[in-house]
Amino acid sequence: MSSSDDSTSSTPPPIAVTHAGRRTRLKWHRARRRPSDTPFTASRIVEAMRVGASVEVDLLIHADRGFAVLHDRDLAHSTTGQGDVSRASATYLRGLSLTDNVGNPTDDGVVLLEDLASRLDGVDIADDALLQLDFKADAAALDAAALDVFARAVAPFADSAILSCGDADAVTALCDAAPDIHVGYDPCHRGAIGRTLRSGDFRGFVFSACRDSPRAEMIYLDQELVLRGADRGADLIAAFHAMRREVDVYTLARADTSSVARFARLVDRGADQITTDDPEGFFAANIVAEATESERSD
After folding, report:
1. CA 200 vs CA 170, 228, 231: distances in Å
2. Domains in the chain with CATH codes
3. What predicted TM-score, i.e. pTM, was given to this entire model?
4. How many CB atoms lie within 10 A of CB 119?
5. Quick one: which of 67, 202, 227, 250 has the most CB atoms within 10 Å?
């Protein structure tokens, strides 16, 4: 069964929370609206774009130099297929089904980036919708053929999409190929978190990120770096705001007591967007928190 067949629409949909006059977007991590969802289903991607959500999918290059919307290179981890995605043809991938969170086959097929425009054709994409395409490799994996496929695939919806990657050279190459797409960068890879926490050089971290990806509109930050930095007096969100970048903090899984407390801290610190597997849960928790605060103020 499709993981989203039983979708129950909340009103409004779980796309953002508002606190102290600030709006923080809830990004649907791996195109999940709730933790039980199968990641990367076409139906959730389409739903997110229709209701105006920020939604993230991962990209891996397949054998025909296009891009599979998957996180794991080993197809057996999340699909009915076998082998490495880099050795799988587009035809083979289109014939696979996604598996759910316990490994059972679903009715949802593997999505390819080059097929996504046709999936979105006719969809009334909301003005605020933003599809994050998170490339899970570095620039060395890209060649002219892959860049050409990327450019042609995203052209129909580029203005509603943002490319992200932890490799600044890959960000440059992909965004040069598709100049209308929005630009994002994740500077938290290759040991950057550990180096920054050991050195305490938070200003240097911010400077390096902006230098390495000067066109980035959105910076993606690991929650541990943001919160541990805050405990030491460093406000990374404010620092990137001062550099005219928005900040997405990732990834909060399920909306339990501990993660709701973290969520509240990140919202209070001014995160523009928070990545989560549980948008519904955090949206509901925020409603309760705001109602409680309002009662205390009365």
Report:
1. 28, 11, 12
2. 26-31+38-185 (3.20.20.190), 188-298 (no CATH)
3. 0.94
4. 16
5. 67
